[in-house]
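From: lab user (bench 3)
To: helpdesk
Subject: output format question, protein + zinc ion

Hello, I'm new to running complex predictions and I'm not sure whether the block I got back is the full result or only part of it. Here's what I submitted:
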Amino acid sequence: MRERLKKFLSGMFYQGRVPSSIIFYGKEGIGKRELALEFAEALLCLEDKYPPCGSCESCRHMKSFRHKSIEELMFYGEDKRGKSVYLYLRGDHPDFIYLNPEKAEIKIDQIRAVKDFVYLSPALSRKKVVFVKPAESMNQYAQNALLKVLEEPPEDTHFLLVTHKLQKILPTVKSRSFLLEVPPLTQEELKEITGINDDILLELSEGSIKMAMKLKEDKELLSTARAILEGDVLTFYKKVLEVEKWEQDRQYDLLRVVQALLHRRYVENRSLADKQALDKVSMGLEYLSKGLRLSLLLFQLRGGNANVLYKGALSRYQQGSAG
Ligand SMILES: [Zn+2]
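Helpdesk reply: Thanks, we reran it on our side. This is the complete output you should expect:
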């Protein structure tokens, strides 16, 4: 799967038909960023190679970008009023900038800075690259400002946008970009990359390297997710109270495992209840960072309201202990 995609990119590259804006989209954690970064390096490579040669001056500069810490790469400028504002990440390569949110959003000041960058001539390579990740973090103003740049694209600049939420990109921005879907990794590919042999872990990772590594390193994720979906009522309550105290990132990962388990169950039995539960989990993943309480969501998952939950879980508990 991945090989086919690389072949496609290679064709584009060697035919000199690289669009000025490409959106790499697909599920979270499947290596989109790595793929797009490698492509960026190739666009800048002085040997004009894809995959990039890895040893020319440009490639060497790009390597330093990968090795430095975020703090070292952060680049600040001034806004209209002369106040210091965060702009983007930049390393030793003069023709490459990496746009990311400082907190939750990529803001319009940052896009203004991008404009200043794109209308300069390249200093080292023949091209320049503006990398945007996660692209969906551009707020509406930022996206509209970016659109203006994309409408009159500077010939020597490529925009590489990476997102797992394509629906959050404005249709106008999408229509100015080439949409490149990155498929999830196959279980074989995942096995090769992560060295994980456990089939269940590979399956639940749903093609995501990130997820696979998390499941491998944090064994409690899977056991807790199982207890939440299938445990008896007492275990369920205990786990809900426990996870309420977890860090938000870990809660997010837990929800993703719950989602994968539910998905697996839904594929087997196509039950409406699982479908509805899946919808709730998607909503939860969306709103967790905005203050949603995980425990309330989990209670809903197991029964709609506390009463139904109690009865439902209890009957299962009784059945379980009787059998
Ligand atoms: Zn090179």
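A quick orientation on your result: Residues 248-269 form the longest helix (22 residues). Let us know if anything else is unclear.
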